[in-house]
Description:
Layout: E1 8-11, H1 17-24, E2 31-34, H2 42-55, H3 62-65, H4 93-97, E3 124-128, H5 131-137, E4 148-153, E5 158-159, E6 164-167, H6 172-181, E7 186-191, H7 202-207, H8 209-214, H9 216-228, E8 235-238, E9 249-251
Parallel strand pairs: 1-2, 3-4, 3-7, 4-6, 7-8
Antiparallel strand pairs: 5-6, 8-9
GO molecular function, one term: transferase activity
Organism: Acetivibrio straminisolvens JCM 21531
Pfam families: Beta-ketacyl_N
Amino acid sequence: MFDKGVNILVEMGPDKTLTGMAKGVMVKDKTILSTMDRKKDNWDVLLDTLGRLYESGIKLDFGVLYGECGYKKVYLPAYPFNRKTYRPLFGEQENEFGKYQNWVYEWSWRREDAAVGCEIKNGAVIVFGDENMKNCLKPYFNSDKNTIYSVSIGEEYSYDGRTSFTINPAKQEDYIRLMEDIKGKVSAVIHMWNYSSAKNSLSELLENDELFYKSAYSLILLGKALIQRQNDGVRCLRLQTRPFQYPMRKEL
Length: 252
């Protein structure tokens, strides 16, 4: 067979019996290949054989090989990754693309100095919330400069004589009395009555008097009491999780 000009022998049988016999002849410059091997993975053996045939100059129809086999595509990024560019090259159009590079914006991050916090001056700090909220905020203030008061919601006005108040959110006189019972200057007011409230719609806010007075309208009554006391330079901060969008943080 080799004497008749056959240079490549491919065995398509269930094993490599014929190829073993052919290699025993010790024919030089001849290619002897098998497509199966019971000691190896048959698919790997077949692919190796096809690769060697392709290297030998044999034209193969790889479309037929993968025609009935599905395979997953790997989506490579169009932008450079790990110092490599994976987008396809389009010949002369690549040079034309460079003309439009200046037409788009490019991210440029600039480092900025951290914002400087506002210093709370000497005086009382009023927290419209329960004792737990007041205690959570205590570490952020100087106890020698600022006395922390808590204001809870109730039906009638009450004061324990130390740092805890209870007022009716709908009564203007309770806010005024609160300011009178706090001796000295008020430096800051932190409104947290709605901090842990559930989300409410605008219609619920307008139809529910209790909800209305402890949220939006309490800020108005509080502002009137502060102005009546002529307490300039008070910093007001309203904290909430999500109920309403009317943040209040300004100097009165």
